[in-house]
């Protein structure tokens, strides 16, 4: 049962009384009650597969090179294969792999391992639909960067459940439409745990109850600076994703990164902690609900890199870059709704950013595509871009973001900084490029700060929080943030913890 606002505020003040006084006599708005403190580990505890072959299943013995591939080819669609305990291999060539048929099921006995031995690139390939893979350990495949080991060609309707996929190059998994990824240990892979990309429509993705840890062991951002190709999970143009109940931790790069025309995401009930970059990075994308998550100690590595390099950009645990809500793009919400989350000792809180020079047909648009609202990018040029609807529709907007009923707590001593790790921001750059851009000067700075319905309210803050508005040159205190012209964080409360 949710405690009342006054009861919660009394508890907060009682706990803080020995350190400081509460800065507002008003009780905070209702805060989160259901975000988990910790999820159970999956790695080392995956649900075992059947100890004996189910009725009608084809038994696959270990030690017979490429036996799984040959038996798959020899049997009709819809066949169930049971892999007996031991190490299974797929031939000596780099393209040794399994080519499932529609409706096939692959079950691993306890102790069944599919081992690429650093030789085979991929485990399961091609475009079969409705394939199930359950109870296997899949390891040491040598997928190239941006490619994946399981469901390499993004077949639709796959169920990947209760597996351990570890120590591979590239991504452990690719994704297709209607794919369910549940109860897996996805760890220590060279690039991603999941690369959710498909050359075609990718809808209705479910990622639930997984442990996603230690990925990007090859540190691709260091190899190719600015590649945007690192982290726990990367999403590209996914329309409809439920990401819930996962433990996403200690990945090199972002924990969850949605990049380029994603839409209709529900990110809830996850524990996201200890990732080098943001816990959640939502970029040039639309409409999302981010709720009931616990975020701890994220972005400290990347935040410190900004600070040590003399850059005061407010790198944050939740980072929205040219991403916002739009009622014209069908989804379960028409905004980005961030609520009932608990954020503790991350490098900063939430940053809303919009690059004034990044829009369709601008060289600063590194995505190479256009928004979901414009089918012909060539129209995003003078004179048509200077007038509506293209003036609005040619640019991804950080708009309609609602940040409320969250708990933000930071102790700079634990994070290892003085002030830069306790910031919120709603900012843009001064538009300069290209010379025909209609978004030059402070057009976007004014819009993101004052005209695009971005709001903070009913939050509770503990720590020395400051705020950036309009650009990185303006750092303001909570009283200024709550006053005109910003008028943000109505009904929010601030507790200045000691130290």
From TrEMBL:
The keyword Chaperone does not apply. PROSITE patterns: PROKAR_LIPOPROTEIN. Residues 154-307 form the Carbohydrate-binding/sugar hydrolysis domain. InterPro entries: Beta_helix, Carb-bd_sugar_hydrolysis-dom, PbH1, Pectin_lyas_fold, Pectin_lyase_fold/virulence. The keyword Cytoplasm does not apply. SUPFAM superfamilies: Pectin lyase-like (SSF51126). Pfam families: Beta_helix. Residues 1-26 form the signal peptide. Keywords: Repeat, Signal. It comes from the Bacteria. This is Right-handed parallel beta-helix repeat-containing protein. It comes from Actinophytocola glycyrrhizae.
